[in-house]
Amino acid sequence: MTPLVRRGRCHVFGDQVPLDEGVMPFRFAIERVTDPKALIPHLFEGMDPGFRERVKPGDFVIAGRDFACGKPHVQGFIAMAALKMSVLCVSMPYKAMRRTAAEGLAVLVGCEGAAAFVGTGDEIEVDFSTGEARNLSRATTARFPAMPPILRELAGNGGMRGVLAAWLRDHPEQAAAKEAAKA
Amino acid sequence: MPTRASVDHRAGLTATQKILARASGLARVEPGEVIHPRPELIIIHDGYVETAYQQLASLGYGRVRDPERLVFVTDHEVAYATQRAVERGRSIRRIAKSWEVGRMFDVGRGGHGHLFPMEMGLVRPGMFLFCYDMHCTNFGAVGALAMGVGTEITAVLATGTLWTIVPHTVHVRLEGAMPAGTHARDVGFLLAKGFAEGTWNVDCDYRVIEFGGTGISRLDLASRVALCSSITELGVANVLFAAPPPGIDTAGAPDYLSDADAAYEARVSFDLSTVEPQVALPGGPERAAPVTSVAGQRIDHAFLGSCGSGMYQDFVDAAALLRGHALADGVRLFVVPGTTQTARRLADEGVAQVFLDAGAVVLPPGCGPCAGGMMGPLGSGEVSISTAATNHEARFGAKDGAAYLGSPLTVAASAIAGQIVDPRVPWGSARR
Known about the structure:
The complex is a heterodimer. Chain A has 9 helices and 7 strands. Chain A is an alpha/beta fold. Chain B is an alpha/beta fold. Chain B has helices at residues 15-24, 49-59, 83-99, 116-119, 153-159, 184-197, 221-230, 312-322, 340-348, 351-358, 408-417; strands at residues 34-35, 41-45, 70-73, 103-104, 128-131, 145-148, 164-165, 169-175, 208-212, 238-241, 266-271, 278-280, 288-290, 301-304, 332-335, 361-362, 383-386, 402-406. The termini of chain B are far apart. Chain A binds chain B through residues 26, 30, 71-72, 74, 93-95, 97-99, 102, 109, 148, 150, 160-161, 163-165, 167-168, 173-177, 180-181, and chain B through 1, 34, 55-57, 59-65, 98, 149-152, 154-155, 158-159, 163, 165, 205-206, 235, 237, 392-394.
C-alpha cells in the first residue's frame, strides 16, 4: 500500500468539538448542502470565527476527546476533504469516523498528547501508515497509533467515490448504457 | 475504533459474531476484525432512493450488484402533500424498474420499513441486512442484525457489501416485570439516559446492546421494538434480543443465539419493576425525566406511532386510555399506524373508532410527523408530546417547537388532559 504522508499547518481545538455548530453550522445539514464551495467558508466558524481567513489547503485539525460528536452529518467533512485537511484527535464517535473515511479524510485516532506536541500555526508532517509525526516548527517528533489499513486505503483512493469508481472499472457489466445514462 | 487486543479464541460467540461470520462466509469473527459481509436484504426508504441513484449514475453505474436482494420501502412521504413528492414517487418507480429491484413497496403497501418486514416474515431471526436508515435496529426485536449505514448504502448497492468492523457486545440483563401504567418506551428512555450519562461505566459507541435475562420473556414484539428504537440514537452498532419473541417462527433459522460463555465486553443489569413513567425532554431520547417532573406542561400537538411505537399493541394500549374520552380543546392528536396490516386490524377490531371518537386524526401508515414534519407538523412555539423515534430540534417541523417524548400511555393521557400527565393517574395529577 502506498505510504500516506501529509504536511501542513495545525489548528488546535479542545475536547468534544460537535459536528453541528462546531465543525459546521447545523443549517447546512438541514438544507442538505453538499457543495464544498458553499461549505468551506463556514468551516469551524462556531468555534473560531477567524478560521476561514487562516485555513489553507492541507492544514491539520488537532482535537481532543470525542471530536465531531453529535449526529454524524457529513457537511463539515465534505468541506475538510475538499481542502485536503487531516485530523489528529484523541477519540471520535464511530459513525463520525466512518463519515471521514467515506469522504477520504486522513485521520489518526488515539493521539493522546497531540495538543501538547503542536500549537496552532505549527507545521507538521505525519506518516499515517506508521503514526510517526514530526513537528517541523519545533523540531520534535511523536508517535501515535497508525491509521488502520482499511481507512488508509479509502483515504488514498479518494474516499468511497474513488473506491466505487475503481469497482466500476473492474466490473464494466454494471456500467450504464450511454443512452440510458443520459435519461 | 474497536481493536482486536482482547481476542479470546476459546470463548463462545455472541449472536452478533455468529450472524456476521455466516454473512461473511467465515467460521468465526472477532470484535475489531474488518469483514465484508453479504446481506440477505438491502432496504432503502423513499427519502434516499433518488440520491443513491444519482450518486451511482454520476459515477457511470447503470446496474446494482444484487438487485434481487434490494427492497424499496415508502414510509417517509406517503400522502404526497406536494408536487415534488408526486415527482419523487414517479422517479422511485422508474428507478425500481431500471435497477430491477427485488421488492418495491409503494405508497399504501407495507407501511413503515422498520416494522412491516418483521410482521410479514420478510426479516427473520438470524438474518443479516444492510439498510440506509439507522432505525433498522428494530429488526433486533426478532433477532436479525441490520446495520444502518446511511449514505454508505451506495457502496452496498454497487459492490454487494461494505467494510464492517465486528462490534463488541454489551449484555443487558432485564429482570422483573414492568409495573402497571408503564411501558417499554419508559424503560428505553431510562436505559438511553443511563448509557449516555455513564451510569454503568459502559461505552456504547458502536456496541451491540444485547438484551437477555428473565425479564425479556414477558416482552412482546411491540415492547422489544420500543426498546430497540429508544437506544438507537446513542450511536450503538445495533440492538438484539437474546431469544425470539412469542409468536415468531424460528423454523429454518440458523444458529444465531449467543453461546452461554460468549465473550461480552460488559454486563449491565436492569430491574424492570423499578420503572416509572418517563418523558424524554426536548433534545433526544436519552434526556429522560420522570413524567411527574413536567406534569402540567401545556401541549398543542401529540402523535402516536413511528418506528418506536407503531405496532398494533401500542395503539391498543393507548386506546384503552382514550376510550370514552375526548381530546382537550386545542390539542390535535395524530395516530399513525406503523403498517398497513396494523391499520387494517385497528379498523377491523374497532380500535381506530376509539381514536376517531376522541377527535384524533388517523394518518396513513408510515413515519408520520417524525419524518421531518411532512405530515402533521409541530408549529412555531408549540409543544408536542409523542412516541416519535427521536425529538431533536426541528424533527417535527418548527425549530422553535418543544417536542417531548413519552410512552403511548403517557401521550394518550396527555392528549385528553391537554397537558403532560402521569398515565397512572391521568386526570388527578394534572395541575390545571
